[in-house]
Design a protein that fits this description.
single chain; about 160 residues; mainly alpha; 7 helices; about 60% helix; about 5% strand
């Protein structure tokens, strides 16, 4: 597991280290080869127990955050797997609210075939009235409705390949 510590912790930890131009790295004061100039530049020794306690607190905070975030891992994976579908749904919702009643028209290839549909008389009246008011054929209303229904309930790929 990777932990990120604050700058204060790093600063306290590095106080016991000195840059060595020969080694091109930081070296602990105890490993210095008696070079007095570099040891004079070194920061005073800090209390190791305080530093360990602060590091322990920081690690505990990081673990707590990681545990809380782990609860959301399945949700994030689901969102990532279904991102395309979710974006389409959100776009369709936004379009539907602001479309001002535009009826989609689809150019469906193939020959026409008669289908009889039985429905409640009040629903049939609504379709007839809607057709007259919007100057749209009932065939276009039902084609659009069936295409949208099939897309919504599992036949998106089949409908899209049909309309290509």
């Amino acid at each position: 597991m990777f932990f990120v510590f604050s700058n204060k912790i790093y600063a306290k930890w590095l106080q016991n280290y000195i840059w060595s131009t020969d080694e091109r790295n930081y070296i602990h004061q105890s490993e210095m080869k008696g070079d007095e100039e570099e040891s004079k530049k070194a920061a005073p020794d800090t209390n190791g127990k305080e530093l360990a306690a602060e590091i322990r607190k920081q690690v505990e905070r990081q673990v707590n955050v990681a545990e809380r975030l782990a609860k959301f891992t399945p949700v994030m994976e689901f969102l990532e797997e279904n991102m395309d579908s979710l974006q389409e749904l959100l776009a369709a919702t936004e379009d539907g609210e602001e479309s001002e009643g535009e009826i989609p028209h689809f150019a469906v290839p193939g020959t026409t075939k008669t289908k009889s549909v039985y429905m409640a008389d009040r629903l049939a009246e609504l379709v007839t009235e809607f057709s007259k008011v919007r100057n749209v054929s009932q065939r276009n209303i039902f084609e659009a409705a069936v295409i949208e229904y099939l897309r919504k309930y599992g036949y998106r790929d089949a409908v899209n390949s049909l309309l290509r």
